[in-house]
Amino acid sequence: MPELRQEPLTRRWVIISTERAKRPQDFKPKPIESHTGDCVFCAGNEEKTPPEIWAYRSPGTGRDQPGWWVRTIPNKFPALGIEGEMNERVNGLHKTMNGIGAHEVIVETPKHQVEFFHHPVQQIEEIIRMWRDRYLDLRQDKRLKYIMVFKNEGPEAGASLEHAHSQLVALPLLPKAIEEEIEGLKMHLKATNRCLFCDMVYQEGEDGTRLVAESDTMLAFCPYASRFPFETWIVPKRHEPDFGLISENEVHDLGTTLREVLVKFSMVLGSPPYNLLLHSTPVNVHIGVSYHWHIEILPRLTKTAGLEFGTDIFINPTPPEVAAESLRRYH
Ligand SMILES: [Zn+2]
Ligand SMILES: [Zn+2]
Ligand SMILES: [Zn+2]
Asked: Which ligand is nearest to the CA of 43?
């Protein structure tokens, strides 16, 4: 059973993974697995993965059989496990709880395909619906407080299998990064009586210098204080805390906008490694402010090093205005 330990100084939570327990010799770099024939995510190899949680599949096809087009399975090396009690405990300075939660993999296509932007828009819409369905299902577990969908693209961004997939993690606590966003939203609400994300959408839309792409319901822009070169956020124009309540129009627009941004990345940067994070309001907990769901895409073109770790201040060599301008040029 993995353990969640809280660092008493900064109150940051760390998952101490027991399942993955690595010895010093395990840290030698390994090449990314790219064999088409024995890829465990390809259709036909269903028995090589843990049993399916949920899949969109043709009528008449059975669980863990081919016939699916988006398939969710448990992570083979889960950071957290769904069984057991939280058993929160304190020993002197040390606060610990059992690593209760979920860690799932969403296989985005039955074909061996690597790049997200190669999916047709309808397929991206189905992937977004799967993200939503898993989010709505897992939140019924009242022990869980935060659910995040994310994607690691490329080995430099943490991917270990090249077949297109995203992941979902469900946590029994509020991560510090989300507490900080909630704090920012509360301060802005107190000062202006408005939602910070709604104001961001308005200001970036009016200003236009950091705009990357726009659809009826979505705005993509490089944030004013981007941490990473070409960092891009996609924010729905409609105020909605809860990604689980995304409308069908928004599913379509998010699919189109997400694909457009990633096509632009590939044109300008040549398919860079990136991390994609989907932030939605916490579940089963009252946060005292109305959240606004959004996506953050963080290209991994620079290394996070001493300055960033020591001060949480990032050096970004590409002004977001310059990044947005070059991304806008391709459409
Ligand atoms: Zn494959
Ligand atoms: Zn809002
Ligand atoms: Zn966020």
From this structure: 1
